[in-house]
Design a protein that fits this description.
Two copies of one chain form a homodimer. Chain A has 209 residues and is an alpha/beta fold. The first copy, chain A, is 46% helix and 17% strand. In chain A, helix 1 (9-27) crosses helix 4, helix 2 (35-42) crosses helix 3 (46-54) and helix 7 (138-145) runs parallel beside helix 8 (156-169). Chains A and B meet through helix 1, helix 5 and helix 9 of A and helix 1, helix 5 and helix 9 of B.
């Protein structure tokens, strides 16, 4: 669904939370819910919830609320959760290994093509049931198999050069765990541990003052 | 600074991004900046930037913009970035090890008291220069040394029981990497890998349609 309205990052970051809630409700057999109830659970205002939903379609009816299965299907589709994206991982250190070992909890329905590392001791091994290939072959691999997403878990100093190689090879998106701001043409989504920790200290600080 | 107005989570999550920008500007010797310039860099509207800042004080002057050092000091203080919080880590598996090894990049000025694991092979070792203690002693350790923050990197099935033990021992905040929704009285800040990946597939999906 092409959406011509400009949707802010703020809204986009709320969508996975809505989908998680809808999945939970669906699993519990709950068929409908009001914006007020959703707001109470997700910590938004109900007008914010209605506004977010209205960006993606005409859901819900006055006096009835929202149909959980309908909303859930819509948000699954909007978030690409029903598609099977091809994924590789670059950098099978501790962080990469943790992601490989927990990939079934993090990501459902993805097509994991392989992990890459430049450490000869790791190449040819399997981590979390995923094969580890030679990092020097990653560019050629990307050109041939066209993964949609590269998970970047290399050391900080390698982040930008590896991102450039992934760009050249035509990877579409980088899920960036390095903490380094990447300059590249691929879509980048950062996991910023520092920002998350600052939110926690903000809240601690608020309690103290 | 006690702020009696209710500040939404949406706003709070933008604050670390502002602080990072202000730190960068300060390091480059830039002394003032407009809300329009900040908005251009952070991907907000300028009215959103002005509104966010106004929640925390009277910064900036019409026609001059904002003083970078003044804003930076204010946001450092607001985010608790100038305080030294006492931190422990529970669960020195691959993810815990990755955090220990990169802790100096993730968190500045924190007082790291120690890591805990129940694996006898890890107890007494040092990871990333941090001592690893017996996980069975964590409760007593917390009661005696009163860490502010526990980084939770245990396996999923241990997340809730360990959170409850941390609660009993009086830890104030949990930085939760387990992906499990914790039911506890401590402040919890979640790192949700799945949500971040869904934002990336949302963006890929938008490009395709």
């Amino acid at each position: 669904m092409k959406n011509d309205r400009l949707i802010s990052n703020n809204t986009i970051y709320r969508l996975p939370r809505y989908l998680r809630l809808l999945n939970e409700l669906d699993a519990r057999g709950i068929r409908r819910i009001s914006s007020t109830e959703i707001a109470g659970i997700t910590g938004q205002t109900s007008s914010q919830v209605r506004q977010d939903f209205s960006l993606y379609g005409s859901f819900g009816m006055q006096g009835y609320g929202y149909s959980v299965p309908e909303l859930r299907n819509a948000f699954s589709r909007i978030l690409g959760a029903e598609r099977s994206y091809k994924v590789i991982l670059i950098g099978a250190g501790h962080l990469g290994t943790a992601i490989l070992e927990n990939f079934q909890f993090i990501a459902q329905g993805f097509d994991f093509l392989g992990a890459f590392d430049v450490d000869p001791a790791k190449v040819g091994k399997s981590i979390g049931g995923r094969p580890v290939y030679d990092g020097n072959d990653a560019g050629e691999f990307v050109r041939q198999l066209g993964p949609d997403i590269a998970i970047l878990t290399v050391p900080r100093e390698d982040a930008q050069p590896v991102a450039e190689k992934l760009d050249e090879a035509g990877v579409r998106a980088i899920w960036n765990f390095t903490g380094v701001e990447l300059d590249c043409s691929a879509l980048v989504e950062d996991i910023l541990f520092s920002d998350s920790l600052l939110v926690l200290t903000y809240k601690l600080n608020e309690e103290d003052t």
